[in-house]
Amino acid sequence: MARLPLYYRALLETAEHDVDTVSSEHLARLAGVNAAQVRKDLSHLGSYGTRGVGYEVGPLLREIAGELGLTHEWPVVIVGIGNLGRALAHYRGFEARGFQVVALVNNDPTKLGGLVDDLVIEGVDELPRLARERSIAIGIIATPPHVAQGVADALVAAGIASILNFAPTVVSVPTSVSMRKVDLAIELQILSFYQHHRDDPALPPLGAR
Amino acid sequence: MARLPLYYRALLETAEHDVDTVSSEHLARLAGVNAAQVRKDLSHLGSYGTRGVGYEVGPLLREIAGELGLTHEWPVVIVGIGNLGRALAHYRGFEARGFQVVALVNNDPTKLGGLVDDLVIEGVDELPRLARERSIAIGIIATPPHVAQGVADALVAAGIASILNFAPTVVSVPTSVSMRKVDLAIELQILSFYQHHRDDPALPPLGAR
DNA sequence: CGGTGTGAAGCCTTTCACAGCA
DNA sequence: TGCTGTGAAAGGCTTCACACCG
Questions:
Q1: A5 to chain B: which residues are within 8 Å by CB?
Q2: Cβ–Cβ gap B187/A185 under 8 Å
Q3: Mean pLDDT confidence for A49-71
Q4: Burial (0-12, 13-18, 19+ Cβ within 10 Å), A80
Q5: Which has the closest alpha carbon to A39: A81, A71, A3, A5?
Q6: pLDDT for position A47
Q7: CB within 8 A of B119, min separation 6: which ones?
Q8: Do A188 and B161 touch (CB under 8 A)?
C-alpha cells in the first residue's frame, strides 16, 4: 500500500479547491497512476465511493489518514548531523505531514552539545533514554556509510522499530523492524544508466519506466 | 536493472579488500538480494563468471561501470537552493560516484548571485545557456512543490533529459525524459503505516518488506 | 565438487473488462 | 447513464532446481 500517501496528498489538494467529490479517474491523474488501480486500492479500505458519482473527499481523507496512522504526531530522531542531517532537521515538509523532529544524535565530539534550532545534539548512548522520554518511534540515519550499521543496531536496541536509511550501504535489521532506504548516488546512477542507453532499441520505451 | 548500482558498490568494497574473485552468493549477501538474482542479472551482461570459481572482481567492475555509464563524469545542475538543495550541493557522496555539481539555480532574488562553495546561484532563465556550456545531462529538483512542474519544464526545454525530483508533488514530463522521484514525507508515511499496523495479522510479515 | 547459467514454476502486481448500483 | 467494485487475464519479476562446465 505504498500508494496511499499519494492519494492522501492528491485528496488534500482537491480538498483545498473545495471539491467534495472525485472520480477514480481524476484521482488517478493527480496521483500519476492507473484508474483501475485507484479503485482496487480504495476498495480494500471499504466502500467509500458512490457508483455513478465518485468518492467523497472528506470521509476518504479521514479514512486514509487513519489507515496511515496520521491521526497523531510521530516523533522522529535524526542520527548523523552532517549536511544531510541538518537539512532534514530543517525540512518543513516533515512537520506539515505530522512528523516532528524531537531529537538529534551525533557522536562527533566537536558537534556534541551543539544546537540546531532548539535541539541539543546528543550522543548515541543517549538513544534509549531519548526514545523512552520522547516516545520516538521513527529513526532517520544520515551518517556516513561505515557507521550506519552500528547506528541501526543502536536504534533497534533503543526500541525504535521504524528506520529511514540515507546512508549508502546495506544495513540489516531484525525482521521485526521496518526499514526504508533512500540512496541518492544510486538514484543518479540509475538515471545515468538510462541516459547512457538512450536510443538503445533493446530497452523498453521511457514511458514505461 | 536498478540493482546494478548495488552490485557496483559491493564490488568496490570487495576490491578494497584485495579480493579478486566473488561468488554470486557472496555478492548477494553484500548487496542484500538473492543469489539466483545476482547470477541472472550478471548473465545479462555476458559471461563474466567462471563455473566452480565465481566472478572476477576487476573485469566485472569495469563491465558494470561501462553499463552504468560511469566511465566519465556526469555534470549535474541543482535547482532550488533551500535547505535540501544546499545540502545536496555539499554532499560528498555524489562526486565520489562520478557526479559533479556544476551549476546552481534558484529564482529567489535574495539568493540570486550568492555563492555556495565556488558556484554562483543563477536564475532559471540561464538554464539553457548553462546546460549547453557545461554539458549538463542531469537536473535535480529541490524546490517547493508548487514550482516543481515549471522547473521540470524549464529543464526539459534546456535539453536536460534526466531528472531527479525531490519536490513532494506529481510532476509530468515527456516520455523521452527519464525522471526519478524521492519523496521524504511519503517514505515516513509508509513507515508510519507499518508502525501503525504492527501486529496486524492481515499484513505480510515484516521480513517480506 | 563448487558455482555459474538458465529453463520453468511460482508469485505478486497491474490492467482489462464488465456486471451492478445510484 | 456514469462510475464503482471486482473477477479474470496478462504481464513482470523472483525464486527454484538442475544441467553443465572448470
A1: 183, 185-186, 189-190
A2: no
A3: 96
A4: buried
A5: A3
A6: 83
A7: B89, B101, B102, B103, B104
A8: no
